[in-house]
C-alpha cells in the first residue's frame, strides 16, 4: 500500500465516524412555473411568510405569497438554471442580513454580499430584514437637529434626528444630489449613514459612491446597492435590509441616517412581483398593500427613549413624480406617511436655482422644534420675506418700475434667492449658515450686485476661518454666540463686503458717471454698507 493510499484511508474513516446516521426530515417541493424572477412552487405546505427557500441548484428565494395550492417565491438570484420540475427545499429561516461595524466603509448588496472587492465581511451577526417598529412608549420627542449643510433646508425646513422627511420631485431635478449632500454634511457629526440604491443605474450609483468617498466620511457610511439589473427580489428587500443595518446602530444608542433612493422604483417592483404572483391589482395596477409595505418600513425610523439608549434613526426616502404631479398614488401615500416633504421643482432647476426647492409646497412637520436656536434666531422671518418676494416678483412683471418699500423688498428677495443657491457637494457648517442669515437680516448684502452676493457666499467660510475663528468654534461647540463674538462676526463680513465693493468699483467701465462712483463709495462707508440715498428710498 502506498503512503497516499494510507492517508486517504485514514481521512475516509474519520469522515465516516463524523457522519450522522439516522432519519432526517426535510421539506421538499417542486417548481411548477418560473418567470421573471418569480417561481410558483407546490408541495411545501408548512412554509411561512418570508421563509428562505433553497433550490436544487443552490439558488435562494423567499416565500412572498402563500396560497393553498401554490407558493409564490421571489428569487434572490438569477433564474437561468431553474426549470419547472426542479426540487425546492424549505430552510425554516426568514431572510436575514449581516449587521455590525464591519459593514462601515463597504459597498454590499441587500444580502450583505460584498460588491467592492475588499474581501468578505468579518461580521457573523445577522438580523431579520422585517422587524417591528418601536412602540409609542419606547419613543422620545424629536428635538435634536440634523444639519444637512444645505442653507435652504436648514433655515426653512429643519430636520430632526428620528424624523422621516420625503424628498420628492420630477426626474433629474437633483433629488439624489440633495440626499448625498445631506450624507456628506455628516462628516463632522456622529451619525452613521446608509445609502440604499433601489433600481438605480450603475452610472448613477457610481457617481454617488465617488462623491461620498471624495467629499464625505466614507468610513462611517454603508452603501447598499440593488441596481436596475439586479433580481426583483433583491430590489424588493433592499430598503428593509438598509433599515435593519441602521437599526443595529440605533439600538446601541448611536445615531443613523438612511437614504432610500428611491421608493417609486420599489413600488414598481412590488407591483411587478404582485402581478406575477397573481395578486389582485388596484389603483394604477398596484396591489392593495402597497401603502402598508412603505408604512411599516418608514415607521421603523424613530428617536428612542433614554431608557433604551436614546439612539435615533432618521429616514430620507426619495420619490419621483411625473410632471410635478404630487397627487399621484405613490407620492400621496408617502407624503401621508412621512413627517414632511422637500419638493423639488423642475422649472426652478432649469432656471439655475439649485437646490430647486419649492418653498411653497415643501414643509417639515417637526421644523422649529429641532432647529438650532441660534440659527432660528438668525433666520427670523426669512421664509415669510422670501415668500412675499416671490409674490411681488410675479406682480411686478406686468407693471411699471416699483418704488419705495416694494423696491427694497424685491432687492432683498433677490439676494435671499442667491444665498439659497448652493453648489453640489459643498455643505455649509452651522457657523456659515448663521453668518449668512445675519448678513441678510442686517442688510449687509443689499448694496452688492447679485453676482457679488454669489462671490460673498463662496468666500465666506474661508474668511470666517481666517478672521473669526473663535466665533466658528463657539458655534460648533456650544451653539451660542455672545455679543462680542457676534460683533467679531459682523466685522469679518463687513470686511469681506468692502473688498468685494472695491473690486466691483475697480472693474467698472471708464464711462461710469462720477455720481455713480460717489454712490459706490457712500455704500462702502455707510453703516452695514448702505448709502444715504438707499436709506431715504427705504
How would you explain this protein's 3D organization?
The protein is of the alpha/beta class. The chain is built from 18 helices and 18 strands. It has helices spanning 3-18, 151-156, 175-184, 202-215, 232-251, 263-276, 290-298, 329-337, 346-350, 373-379, 382-396, 404-420, 430-441, 450-467, 469-478, 483-506, 514-525, 532-537; strands spanning 28-35, 38-42, 51-55, 60-66, 71-75, 87-94, 96-98, 106-108, 126-128, 145-146, 159-160, 166-169, 191-198, 221-226, 255-261, 312-320, 340-344, 363-364. It has an 8-stranded mixed sheet, sandwiched between helices. Strands 1-2-5-4-3-6 form a 6-stranded antiparallel barrel. Strand 4 and strand 5 (71-75) form a beta hairpin.
Set out the fold topology.
Blueprint (H helix, E strand, L loop, with lengths): L2 H16 L9 E8 L2 E5 L8 E5 L4 E7 L4 E5 L11 E8 L1 E3 L7 E3 L17 E3 L16 E2 L4 H6 L2 E2 L5 E4 L5 H10 L6 E8 L3 H14 L5 E6 L5 H20 L3 E7 L1 H14 L13 H9 L13 E9 L8 H9 L2 E5 L1 H5 L12 E2 L8 H7 L2 H15 L7 H17 L9 H12 L8 H18 L1 H10 L4 H24 L7 H12 L6 H6 L1
Parallel strand pairs: 8-14, 12-16, 12-17, 13-14, 13-15, 15-16
Antiparallel strand pairs: 1-2, 1-6, 2-5, 3-4, 3-6, 4-5, 7-9, 10-11, 17-18
Give a short synopsis of this structure:
With 538 residues, the chain is an alpha/beta fold. It is 42% helix and 17% strand. The protein contains 18 helices and 18 strands.
